[in-house]
Amino acid sequence: MNVIPLDFEKPIAELAKKLDDLKRHLRGHDIDLDPEVRRIAAHIEKTKRLTYSNLDPWQRVQIARHPQRPYALDYLRLAFTDFVELHGDRLYADDRALIGGLATLQGTRCVVVAHQKGRDTKENIQRNFGCAHPEGYRKAMRLMRMAEKFDLPVVSLIDTPGAYPGIGAEERHVAEAIAVNLREMMVLKVPVVAVVIGEGGSGGALGIGVADRALMLEYSWYSVISPEGGAAILWKNGSQRAAAADALKMGAKELKEFALVDQVVPEPLGGAHHDHAAAAMNLRTAILANLAELATVPMKELLAARYRKYRAFGRYAEGTGGGASQDGTGGLV
Amino acid sequence: MPIFRKPAFNIGGNAKKLQIPAGTFQACPSCSAVLHQIELEQNQRVCPHCEHHFLIGSRDRLGHLLDPGSFQEADADMEAVDVLNFRAAKSYKDSLAEYQKKTGLKDSAIGGLGRIEGKEVSVAVLDFAFLGGTLGSVAGEKITRCIEAATERGIPVIVISAAGGARLHEGMFALMQMAKTSGALAYHSAARLPFISVLTNPTTGGVIASFASLGDIIVAEPKAMIGFAGPRVIKETTHQDLPPGFQTAEFLEAHGLVDMIVHRKKMRATLSNLLGYLHQEKRAA
Prior knowledge:
The complex is a heterodimer. By secondary structure, chain A is α/β, with parallel strands linked by helices. Chain A is built from 14 helices and nine strands. Chain A has two domains: 10-54, no CATH class; 64-311, 2-enoyl-CoA Hydratase, Chain A, domain 1 (Alpha-Beta Complex), CATH 3.90.226. Chain A has helices at residues 10-26, 34-53, 57-64, 72-78, 121-127, 134-149, 167-171, 174-186, 202-206, 227-235, 241-247, 252-257, 276-295, 299-311, and strands at residues 81-85, 98-105, 108-115, 154-160, 192-201, 213-217, 221-223, 263-265, 316-317. In chain A, strands 1, 2, 3, 4, 5, 6, 7 and 8 form an eight-stranded mixed β-sheet that branches. In chain A, helix 1 packs antiparallel against helix 2 (34-53) and helix 3 crosses helix 11. Chain A starts with 9 loop residues before the first helix and ends in a 16-residue tail after the last strand. Chain B is of the alpha/beta class. Helices cover 34% and strands 18% of the residues of chain B. In chain B, helix 4 (137-153) packs parallel to helix 5 (171-190). Chain B starts with 24 loop residues before the first strand and ends with a helix. The chains are: A alpha/beta, B alpha/beta.
């Protein structure tokens, strides 16, 4: 697969092209330019490392949105086996932007709920660009309740710009669908592992994201609002999206430092789209390790720990001293 | 020197200019009637001519709802922390200071214990005047503590919402308040205790997509704007004309999304009556 370079990857792409040209030119000629080839190759490696180890938040957002980035169904094909898709919320429709079903992860059977984007225009119309309607959240809840009934752990793969802002979504109350999921996932009596695999757009992401373990792929983002939305509201200028991506602290590393996510799953150099299979293996390893740990925790303890985790989220100051509450324990009643 | 001189514009002769402090009168945005501030306050900030519900401050709201003197505020000193060191067009710190000065509030939420016609409730109110009533760490923590206190004491929770959504300046900390508050409600609900959610103008975004939509009974004020996404965003995304009355309390009622619409002046009596059905004192004990 030819990887489409992002703007900041163009220098790397140009060097790679130069190297290809040189190699092609050498074919059929009897000159020894091996040292030159090696020099360029080394330069490419160096440029790559330099570029990818100094990505700014907006560049990371671009990787998370790369058109060749693996989506949920790619991971279900590469990391899982035997995905049996189950359709519909039994109320209104089947949301193709939020899919779900049964799948096996190296011998571990589970229920998967996941946002799904489309690869091309036609599929994106079907998938609504990964923006789910209330039906999607209600289908996810139906499947999670089923998981609880049959004692299967839940794996949630998050990849959405946000819940769909549409007339039908409002009429059928997408806000309520999300709210119910937040409440019910907090007390779901099976282990839940959620992974942001691309975009974690606000309530639409959190709507399948309350979990014992919340993971993020290295270049994914997770935020209260998209960089564009944040720029429009707080800067009154949509073109400030890079500044918003920076200010909102939406990257995996930042959120791990705040302890708002539990683990960052590494991606292949330059992003998951450079090597789908390697990304899928990393994802599988991470989910399996977490599921194995959670499987040994007694249910009562699991639920108590889940509540404690979310209960501790928030920074505020109490009393006239104005000192911030201790992180992680502030305000426990 | 000109022959004709423009006379000084001077209606009312040389009488001393009447001094009316700004904000004494205000036009009703619905019927344009000019209302005196005192008249408006005495009518719980409802237009006496057309019943338009004006925004109302959280303390005034509690004053109208709770038995006089019954409110015991909790965590009155809690304040926001600028955890992201957030700076957009304006810095979060400056915004906080500005709204604290403007409203006299520490943050968007106040909460505590009180009584409605003698019935003990745990109550929290969001104030739209403070940064759009937004749900940040402080509001999330106060509401969660209200819910937990209610679970512990075996009493109902009432939350009155007026909010644009999650507070963007706190990033993911704000988003997580949705999960925190909703999770606390799961345990309150499991204890078979009632939660009444009151939606007032406006209740949108992360607030309607969490605790505000989880009431055993959901009550809305007339004409309140209630919805997940903003109407402008929906219009821009879908390129569709919005139906008349879209995202009003009446629209939600017609679509089966709220239990009832209640006039502000009947709110106290209505809540008291509902509590009587859902929470009999003898069972609470």
